[in-house]
Amino acid sequence: MKFAYAFPLAGLAAAFATAAQAETITVATVNNNDMVIMQSLTSAFEEAHPGIRVNWVVLEENVLRQRLTTDIATDGGQFDVMTIGTYEAPIWAERGWLVALDDLPEAYQEEDLLKPVRDGLSHNGSLYALPFYAESSMLYYRTDLFEEAGIEMPEQPSWEEVREWAAELHDPANQLAGICLRGKPGWGENMAFVSTLVNTFGGRWFDEEWNPELDSPAWQEAIGFYVDLLGNYGPPGASSNGFNENLALFSRGNCAMWVDATSAAGKLYNPAESQVADRLGFAPAPVAETPKGAHWLWSWALAIPASSETQEAAQTFLTWATSQEYIELVGETQGWTSVPPGTRESTYANENYQREAPFAGFVLDAINSADPTDSTLEPSPYVGVQFVGIPEFQSIGTQVGQTIAAALTGDTGVEQALQNAQRATARTMQRAGY
User: Interhelix angle for 324-334 vs 311-321, to 10°?
Assistant: First the structure.
């Protein structure tokens, strides 16, 4: 009996020794579908890198942003890998909060990353985050409902047409909203969409002297349109719906149309996850006065805070999770419509992806045509399509998002909401020295 257990016990001891020697990295990420898939593939990473263990912190988008901003600004050191975006990367890099990724292995093929995405995650020529997935925005619609109503989708829809279609298709008795849009307050939730709406209506956040323009005629028209459209033809409780909530509604067949991130396309086209996969159409984000800034540019990316004590292990994880090999792994294990979109030229050249994802070329064109340096009809002093690339925008956008949500729920009128937003933003900018 003694010898029968000798080898298993020795193997068990070796396993415990390996575990004891392994470095643990804590990864903070958002609860979006692509990140959930990444978390599910942890075992593949740990098997390939037995000296590293991954601890996950998965949070709702607004909570994640608050936690990460607090931690990195106070040098808290809770996380070794942070999921941040195109907004944070250059600002946090300039402040010295992130580790520069200048020594990526040759096999990573940095030049394969899409240039607009790579540029958005860089500061002074250095990458400070690696894109896990990237997106623009687009219009999703139910082809069966459009056909029944005799509606033909034009090559470039307008917002006025969208309102007419929403009115025609809205059917609350059958739990069908004419349109679903983001209403949940947050600079990266409702304001990501609202900013593009304001852009295409001819508005901007600030004039060239950094004076806010939130009570301008263009803002009044855009927000009035938004409140009317979503109030009359949106789902119940629209002010509580962000990206994930609307994705669930649309995939269950409760929305005739939805304008949101291109990254949703893979899930919506996957019949295992979407009840409308065989009735799904897509078109460019609608336009109003100008096409400028009608669709956004965003990347969810992985970065290493300077406070991390396991930077080498963290970079090993970053390069794995954003590599061509990872994309192949997801394609082979989860299906090609589930691979992280918008990051690599090689993804869009992949025959498997082209065959399974009819939206691939469309999304690539949308990402490449979004210009964060020229997103408004009148010149503006900031970089960003659906955000303003200054440190103060996180608090400004969140506050304005709350006032817009209040207008959506009817707690305040559109004009009053925008006057409140204008005054609050002017105070913030004055205190910041603009």
Answer: 60
The CATH-assigned architecture of domain 18-135+298-357 is 3-Layer(aba) Sandwich (3.40)
Q: For residues 112 and 434, what is the distance between their CA atoms, to the nearest angstrom?
A: 38
Measured at the CA of 200, the angle between CA 171 and CA 225, to 5 degrees, comes to 40
The residue whose two tokens read 């019949």 is 271
Cα 247 from chain centre: 13
Strands (E), 169-297: 257-261, 280-284
- Write the DSSP symbol of residue 286: P
130: enclosing H helix or E strand: strand 130-135
Q: Are 299 and 342 spatial neighbours (Cβ–Cβ below 8 Å)?
A: yes
Helices (H), 305-392: 311-321, 324-334, 345-349, 351-356, 360-369
Residues 6+ apart with CB under 8 A from 167: 178, 232, 233
SS3 134: strand
For residue 417, give every residue at least 6 positions away whose Cβ sits within 8 Å of its Cβ, in sequence order, or none: 223, 403, 404, 406, 407
Residue type, 396: I
**Confidence class for position 7, pLDDT limits 50, 70, 90:** very low
203 token code pair: 């508005």
Which pLDDT score, from 0 to 100, does residue 264 have? Answer: 95
* Sequence-ordered list of residues with C-beta below 8 angstroms from that of 277, at least 6 positions apart, any chain: 268, 269, 270, 271
Q: What is the DSSP letter of 255?
A: B
Give residue for tokens 């109503």: 149
According to DSSP, residue 367 is labeled: H
Domain boundary assignment for the chain: 18-135+298-357, 137-295+365-431
Q: Using CA atoms, how far apart are residues 287 and 198, in angstroms rounded to an integer?
A: 10
The 10s digit of each residue's pLDDT in 324-376 is 999 999 999 999 999 999 999 999 999 999 999 999 999 999 999 999 999 99
Contact between 116 and 122 under an 8 Å Cβ cutoff? The reply is: no
Residue type, 238: A
Give the global pTM. 0.91
**Residue carrying the six token digits 């004891």:** 20
Same fold, 18-135+298-357 and 137-295+365-431: yes
Q: Looking at 20-29, 127-136, 425-434, which range is the least confident one?
A: 20-29
What fold is seen in the domain 137-295+365-431?
D-Maltodextrin-Binding Protein; domain 2 (3.40.190)
